[in-house]
Amino acid sequence: MKLLIVDDEELTRTGLMTSINWASLGIEEIFQADDGLNGLEQARIHKPEIILCDVRMPRMDGITMLERLEKILPDSVPIFMSGYSDKEYLKAAIRLKAVNYIEKPLNPSEVSEAVREAGNLYIQKLHSKRGETLRSMETASQLALLLTLPAVPDHETVRTFSQELGISIRNTSCILSFIIKMHVFPELPVLEEFHRELSDFLEKRKISFIHTDKKHQNLICFLFSERKPSSHTLQELQDFLACRLSYHGKYSIAFGDIVTGISKAYQSYASAVILLQNSFFFPENFVLTQDSVKNHGESSSCSFDFPEQEFKEALENRDQETALKLLDQLKNTFFKSTGYFQNSVKDLYYKLFLSLENTRKRSIIPGSPDDESIADTIHQCFTFPELHKTLVTQTTVFFEEATENTQEHPTIHLIKNYISQNYMDDTLSVKDISEHVFLSTSYVCTFFKNETGQTLNQYLTEYRMEKAKQLLKDARYRIADISSRVGYSDGNYFGKSFKKRCGISPSEYREQNLQ
Fold first, then answer.
1. Mean predicted lDDT score pLDDT of the chain
2. 3-class secondary structure, 438
3. Separation of alpha carbons 314 and 6, rounded Å
4. What percent of the chain has pLDDT over 70?
5. The CATH number of domain 2-126, selected from 1.10.287.3510, 3.30.300.30, 2.60.410.10, 3.40.50.2300
6. DSSP E strands: which ranges in 73-202?
7. Assessment of whether the complete model's pTM goes beyond 0.70
């Protein structure tokens, strides 16, 4: 917790700082101010949970300061200090719900006890407030779910829910739905904070807000106001959402139509759903509205025949220019399009990734992915631009490695390919590799070192670490699982090897590179 000491006497502040074991009371940070005005500013900046405040000070007294802070920090717990036994100050302290009123000269044990009591009271306040927030969020979720159904909502049920939430929904109310699609859905504490911040933002604009989630991926929101939100207000809302959501990874937002009356709430929701279906073809962190997509293609389903065979032949013939031109054609067709189905496009890209894999295998190029890893790669791509970039990158790498492949000894190709297929086996040994290429263990080790400049074990470790890096960028995999997936039965040994190789631990690498 944070503590703010406000007193115009420097000796008092210094004495408090040095005479009490604050850490034992749960106080981690302490701030000081020499009068009410500075105390007000310090409190606004640092938001202390406990405020230890003198009553009489120059420029602004403690009572006035805390009266103003009540609106900014309603949960902070004040403790008054004073050398004057003034009944009026005592009354003010009671009205401001001060946890204690300590007379000067101060007794350190009395101050410690007051701070401990204040800390406990603050925690009780938080628990109570969190319970109220969770109940409110549950009620709001039930109402929001009701509005996502095509049937006209029961007006009595809506009235009951809205009264419980303290919001006004009339037949003349303007309603706007928007949906937030998130790559990694936030945990409950993050949702609570988002709910509170968005509610505060909208309340200043006289707009009520409820939300629910579906499948722990989409956050469905409904706004209610007596007047139609202006374009300026909507832009402010979009900017606010972009700012808050940027801390939580990739997202897309789709805004529905503004409608009037609770009976038309589903119409706003349905229009947002239709827009969200097109979000895949737009960049990540993009806001879709009717205006933002109207200049990007037709809204009906279209068909597109991509010359798959021509792409395969370009790979076989090592014709990089033709292959990349064909992929560029794909990008121009699908990027920011509203005329195609997401699954159909993903199916096409699956076939193209598969063409790359099959050509790799026929050319004995190491690192050929299996069907499951191709499907996993596609699933990880949040948007079409990300999916397309991944395919272009892998295609470019294929041509680079194909060029290197022609310069390497065939036996080296066989060894690398065998490692790429078996690196996840923790029992993989140099003996296994030598038997695969029908050579003695000692000869394989010497031959590989002479041809590549690396020992077999160095190459195997490097290969496993590169695979581990790829998996660490995906939040779905636990680090313990990753170690076994790249051939390490001992998680601790994997962690030490990774740090030795990369300079940082697997968890640190994940924090820096999590998608």
1. 85
2. coil
3. 75
4. 90
5. 3.40.50.2300
6. 77-82, 100-103, 174-182
7. no
Per-residue pLDDT of 351-403, as tens digits, reads: 999 999 888 877 767 665 555 688 888 988 999 999 999 999 999 988 888 87
How is domain 308-513 classified at the CATH fold level?
A: Arc Repressor Mutant, subunit A (1.10.10)
Query: Are residues 141 and 133 in contact, defined by beta-carbon separation less than 8 angstroms?
Result: no
Q: Cis peptide leading into 189, omega within 30 of 0?
A: no
Cα separation of 422 and 323, whole Å?
30
- Asked if residue 427 lies in contact with residue 394, where contact means CB atoms within 8 angstroms, the answer is no
Please state which of the four CATH numbers 3.40.50.920, 3.10.620.30, 3.40.50.300, 3.30.70.270 is assigned to the domain occupying 148-293.
Answer: 3.30.70.270
User: Which residues share a beta bridge with 182?
Assistant: 251
3-state class (DSSP) for residue 210: strand
**CA 470 to CA 437: how far, in whole Å?**
28
As a whole number of angstroms, the distance between CA 447 and CA 455 comes to 9
Rounded percentage of the chain residues whose pLDDT exceeds 90: 36
